[in-house]
Amino acid sequence: MFFLKELPGKAILEQYARKYPDMDVEKTDRALHMMRSASLLIRDLEAYFATHDLSQTKFLTLIVLEREPDKLHLTLTEICHRLDVSKTVISKTLKTLEKQGAIKIRQNIEDQRSKHIQITAKGRKKIESLMPGYYQLINKHIEGNESYEQK
After folding, report:
1. Which CA distances in Å does 12 have to 22, 26, 30, 31, 120?
2. How far apart are CA 5 and CA 94, in angstroms?
3. DSSP readout, 96-143?
4. Tens digit of pLDDT for each residue in 10-23?
5. Are 54 and 130 in contact (CB under 8 A)?
6. Residues contacting residue 119 through CB under 8 Å, at least 6 positions apart
7. How far apart are CA 122 and CA 145, in angstroms?
8. H/E run at residue 86
9. Backbone angles phi, psi at 121, to 5 degrees
């Protein structure tokens, strides 16, 4: 998250650029606006997910499992490779999703150290019910930032 509410104006950025010659005022200004915009979008998405008893991590875990229909299951390691989250966080997330009935976790018969994780019909329905609102939020944020992005 990017917590700076009031972004510095051009005058302040130019002041920094004089002090730090490697700084590009336009690129820094654009990056600050992108970080602020992304932060607001993430905040809105987290609030949206919370109304559906999910977090961003739970949502993304379900998406990772759902988007590969040709794979019957993924392992914890495979999920961690697809998300930028620690194994500890993913393990807790998986336990919660299993309690909610959104996923199944089964022991890997060939390797007792590994487990197979798959999305359930309930998990797929959850994703399907979330996607319209998810895309509406994304569209709202992009439409609000299109003029800046085209600079």
Report:
1. 15, 12, 14, 15, 52
2. 34
3. HHHHTTSEEEEE-SS-TT-EEEEE-HHHHHHHHHHHHHHHHHHHHHHH
4. 999 999 999 999 99
5. yes
6. 62, 65, 66, 102, 103, 127
7. 35
8. none
9. -60, -40
Residue 130 contacts residue 52 (beta carbons within 8 Å)? yes
Alpha carbon distance, N-terminus to C-terminus of the chain: 24
In one-letter notation, the amino acid at residue 112 is Q
- For residue 47, give both structure tokens: 């609030």
25-42 pLDDT, tens per residue? 999 999 999 999 999 999
Calpha distance 56→112 (Å, rounded)? 30
Q: C-alpha distances in angstroms, 36 versus 16, 29, 54, 141, 143?
A: 19, 11, 23, 11, 15
Q: Whole-model pTM? A: 0.82
90: how many CB neighbours lie within 10 A of its CB? 21
Q: 3-class SS at 60?
A: helix
Q: SS3 for 74?
A: strand
Distance CA 115, CA 109 (A): 9
Q: Write out the two tokens for 33.
A: 């606006």
